[in-house]
Amino acid sequence: MKLLPEFIRPNWKVLILGFLGLCTVYVLKHQLNVWAWLHGEHRVFYDTTENLTSFPAGEVILNKSVRYLLNDLFSIMIIHGIFQNQRYTKFAFGLLLFGMLVLLPLYFLLVYYAPDGYTSMVANVHRIVLNPVLMMLLIPYLYHMERQKNEKKGAS
To answer: What transmembrane ranges does the database entry give (predicted)?
Structure first.
């Protein structure tokens, strides 16, 4: 009995490294305070949707941007580890750039300019943008594309 379809041949090293990287970023998310490191300090960054505006804007933007990049880069490793397809990996990098140039700035605008009472909306946008949700949603989509491509080959 096969565990994976034959059109999926994962690179287990890259896949496991990506997964361990995502886990590490999650576990150490409060210690990832690049702003403090650059200023010669070592302090945790306990941010919540309610207290984000109490931090300097530069600290929030830098720390959240670094976390976004790490999450998405490790997610891209997972995608590449599963499919080993350069087109898919490039598409995932395109999604990373879209998030970095469009979604992340919109998130920061919401954090600092959303009216009172919109914290639940900001929290949900945070989950979509800063957590690797969009990248992880690519996996079933790409799997479906691979399966369809494989079925068309088999039918020909």
So the answer is: 12-28, 95-113, 125-143
Is residue 75 within 8 A of residue 92, CB to CB? The reply is yes
Alpha helices in 1-156 (DSSP H): 12-27, 34-38, 57-83, 86-98, 104-113, 119-129, 133-155
Entry pTM: 0.89
Torsional class of 40: left (φ above 0), alpha (ψ -120 to 50), beta (otherwise): left
**41-70 pLDDT, tens digit each:** 888 887 776 678 888 889 889 999 999 999
Question: For residues 16, 17, 18 and 22, what is the CA-based torsion angle, rounded to 10 degrees?
Answer: 100
Alpha carbons 42 and 33: distance in angstroms, whole number: 8
| Contact partners, residue 92, CB within 8 Å, separation at least 6 | 72, 75, 76, 79, 80, 135, 138
Residue type, 24: T
Q: How far is CA 7 from the centre of its chain?
A: 25
What gap in Å lies between CA 137 and CA 153, rounded to an integer?
A: 25
Q: Are the C-beta atoms of 10 and 82 separated by less than 8 Å?
A: yes
